[in-house]
Amino acid sequence: MPNQTDLSKYDNSWYSPKASGIKRLFWYFTNVVFFINPINPFSGLKVFLLKLFGAKVGKGVVIKPSVNIKYPWLLEIGDTSWIGEKVWIDNLVKVEIGSNVCLSQGAMLLTGNHDFKKITFDLITKPIKLENGVWIGAKAVVCPGVTCHEHAVLTVNSVATRDLDSYNIYSGSPATKIKERQIF
Amino acid sequence: MPNQTDLSKYDNSWYSPKASGIKRLFWYFTNVVFFINPINPFSGLKVFLLKLFGAKVGKGVVIKPSVNIKYPWLLEIGDTSWIGEKVWIDNLVKVEIGSNVCLSQGAMLLTGNHDFKKITFDLITKPIKLENGVWIGAKAVVCPGVTCHEHAVLTVNSVATRDLDSYNIYSGSPATKIKERQIF
Amino acid sequence: MPNQTDLSKYDNSWYSPKASGIKRLFWYFTNVVFFINPINPFSGLKVFLLKLFGAKVGKGVVIKPSVNIKYPWLLEIGDTSWIGEKVWIDNLVKVEIGSNVCLSQGAMLLTGNHDFKKITFDLITKPIKLENGVWIGAKAVVCPGVTCHEHAVLTVNSVATRDLDSYNIYSGSPATKIKERQIF
Fold it and tell me: Which chains touch A (3 or more CB pairs under 8 A)?
C-alpha cells in the first residue's frame, strides 16, 4: 500500500518569517484594515505603512484597493510600479518588484509550495523576482521561484511556473511563450 | 538596447469616466459598503442604488453579495439576469448585459487593457456586450472588446479573448469553441 | 429560430438547503463576520462555529482567514486537514473532505451547475468528495460531482471537471493527468 501524507507531522519550525510575533500581529491587522479592506482608496497612506513595516518602496508607486500583502519586510518595489486592485502578494520569502512593473487586478504572487512527495508535506519557499517593465495580467499567477525577466508579459489568468524570458509574452496554464514583445 | 516602458510618462488624461469626481467618490463608498461588503444579502437595495447612480436595470434582476462594479452609469442590464456572488464588472467603458444572462460566481468583465508596445503603456478601453441568454461560468473572464453573442456559454475559469458565436460553448484560456449549445 | 432561456421560469423550489430560513440567515451573518471577514485569524473559534452549525470537523483542522462556506451542515472534514486563505466552499449539497487534505489559498469547490440545454436553466447540484491526502492547489476549482481520489493533486488554477485518480497529479483547464504522485 502506498505511503500517505500525515499533516500532523508537518513541521515548518525551520521557517523564519524574519519578524517577531508582535510585529506580524500588528501587520496582520494593518493589512486587514488598510489594505484588504477597500475603504481607503488612496495610495499614499499605504506606501507609508508598507515602509513603516520595512518594505522598500520607490517613488511614484501606486497601490490600489483590496491588496493583500503577507509580509512587507520581505517586499521591494522600484519606481513608478503599479499594484492593482485585489493583487495578492503572498510573500513568505522575498519578492522583488522592479521599476515600471504593472501587476493588474487580481494577480497573485505565490512563494509557498509543498513537497508532495513527502509524508510530511514539507513547506518549500522560493522568492519571486519581477524585473523592470514586467506586466502580470489580471488574475494571472506567478509561482514560487519564478523570475520574470525584463519586460516579460503574462496574459490574463495565466500561470507562470517557470522563468519568463525578457521581452516575451506568455499565455496559458502553465504559461508558454506566444510571441515577442516589441516596444516602439 | 530595446526600449523600456516608463510609467512616469503614462497619460490617461484623454479618458473620461463620464461622471464628476464627487459622483465617483460617492459611488466608490457605496460600492464598498453595499456591494463588495457582503453584509447586505438582499438584491432590491442594490438594484435601487445602481439605478440611482445611472445604471439601466431591467425587471427581476438578481444581484448577489460581494459584487464589485466600477461605474454603474456605464452599465446596462436587461430583464431577469443574474449577477452572481463576487462577480467583478470592471467597466471603465460601457458594459451591456442583455436579458436572461447568468454571470456565475467570481466571473470578471474586463474593459481596460494597456498598449504593451508603447513606452507609455497607454490605456486602451473597449466595451463588452453580453447578449440575451449568455452564461459566463464561475471565475471566467471576458476580455475588453468582446461580444458574447446570444446564448453563448463560457465555461468555468475560461478566458474569452475574442467574440463568442451565438449558441456555442467555449472553454480554455484563451477560450475555444468546444461544442454547440442546443436548447430544447 | 432556436429556443431561448427564460430565467423568469427558473424554478429551484425542489431544492432543499436542509435547514430553516432562520438558521440560514444566522449562518449567513456568522460567515460574513467570522469567516469571510479576515479580522479573526484564529482557527479555533471558526471550528467551534462550524460545529455549532452542524459541520463534522475532525481534530487538528486549520481554517485560515477569509474562507467562504455556504452551508456548514453540509460539510464534513476529517483530521488535520487545512482550509487555506480565501478558500470558497460553495456547498449547496454535501462536501466531504477527508483527512490530511490541503485546500490551498483561493481554491474553490463548486457544487452547483445549470442545465444549459433547457429554457428554464434548471439548477443541478452534485456533491464533491476529496479523499484523504488530496491537495487542491491555489485558485484551483473542483466542479460539481467530482471525486478526487486519495492523494490526488490538482495544480494551481486548474479546473477538475472529472474524477481524479488516486496518487496522480492533474493540471490544466480542464485538468488532465500529467504524472504520478509517489510519496516516500
Answer: B, C
